[in-house]
């Protein structure tokens, strides 16, 4: 969550997750990897690589074993797997079709 406060590893100050990036850069001179496409700045190179793969390169390497639909992340696949559940208890008020999720 972007609103949870995190303590700076180099000093005692606390910041939200979003603001700690700027603090590390400005107060401690930590260079932040920056996305050349959208300008997103991260603390770790691995986070930048993951961002570029998921957002800009359209790499969907994780495949559903049931329907073979592809996803960017394991978390996306986990959310998708709910659609395959047999326990479909949420009924649509418009079409009367039942779903596993209320959304």
From TrEMBL:
Pfam families for the chain: zf-C2H2
InterPro entries: Znf_C2H2_sf, Znf_C2H2_type
Highest taxon of source: Eukaryota
Domain C2H2-type: 33-61, 62-89
Record has Glycoprotein as a keyword: no
Example GO molecular function: zinc ion binding
One of the protein's GO biological processes: developmental process
Keywords: Metal-binding, Repeat, Zinc, Zinc-finger
Disulfide bond is among the record's keywords: no
Annotated PROSITE patterns: ZINC_FINGER_C2H2_1, ZINC_FINGER_C2H2_2
Protein name according to UniProt: C2H2-type domain-containing protein
């Amino acid at each position: 969550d972007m609103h949870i406060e995190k303590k700076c590893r180099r000093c005692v100050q606390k910041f939200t997750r979003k603001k700690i990036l700027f603090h590390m850069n400005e107060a401690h001179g930590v260079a932040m990897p920056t996305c050349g496409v959208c300008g997103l700045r991260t603390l770790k190179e691995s986070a930048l690589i993951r961002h570029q793969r998921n957002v800009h390169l359209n790499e969907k390497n994780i495949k559903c074993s049931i329907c073979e639909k592809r996803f960017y992340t394991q978390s996306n696949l986990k959310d998708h797997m709910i659609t395959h559940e047999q326990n479909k208890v949420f009924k649509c008020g418009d079409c009367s079709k039942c779903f596993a999720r209320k959304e």
